[in-house]
Amino acid sequence: QVRLVQSGAEVKKPGASVKVSCKTSGYTFPRYALHWVRQAPGQGLEWMAYFKIGNGNTKYSPKFQGRISIIEDISATTIYMELSSLRSEDTAVYYCAREIDITIFGIFSVWGEGTTVTVSS
Amino acid sequence: EIVMTQSPATLAVSPGERVTLSCRASQSVSRNIAWYQQKPGQPPRLLIYDVSTRATGIPARFSGSGSGTEFTLTISSLQSEDFAVYYCQRYNNWPPPFGGGTKVEIK
Questions:
Q1: Is B57 on the interface with A (CB under 8 A)?
Q2: How far is B22 from A18, CA to CA, in rounded Å?
């Protein structure tokens, strides 16, 4: 069974950074790319980033360029997304999601449960 | 950058009714459209991709259609578990934008 398990909720002050993990299981880790999508309270889905396991190829939404980074730990089949210079508008649920197929960019067939990040002074 | 627009924002429907949700792209997206369902407190769930291909385990009452810039998700007979928010999404390009969502609520 394919699973994505994310780290727990975080509360951060404005200007700080947050690091969210996404532990994968049930499939060959390097085979599929992973994405990050966030959802502010009561709002829709916002795509943030793409990360290809193994070669570190990344694509970031221009909105987050310069503030976001993603790293992998292949032995732990886990990726980590770090968002810096947090502001109140970054308060959201952050999801990692796996692509349905290695040849198609951006169809998300498996999702993590989400990590709530609250930015408040 | 392509913008996806969904309508209506909210739809009040009775169980058993047929539901049609619309999604419009600001430019042609070929067949690269997916639909997701999201219930409160849960992550989104993939329903449809390639305009009309149901994802694994999705009931046949969900169907998709359209081409170019206009797309539709139809639920043939709404069940109680279908009350949720539905998002369309363009994929196979960067960035892969989502529509703003349509909330299907009980009438």
A1: no
A2: 36
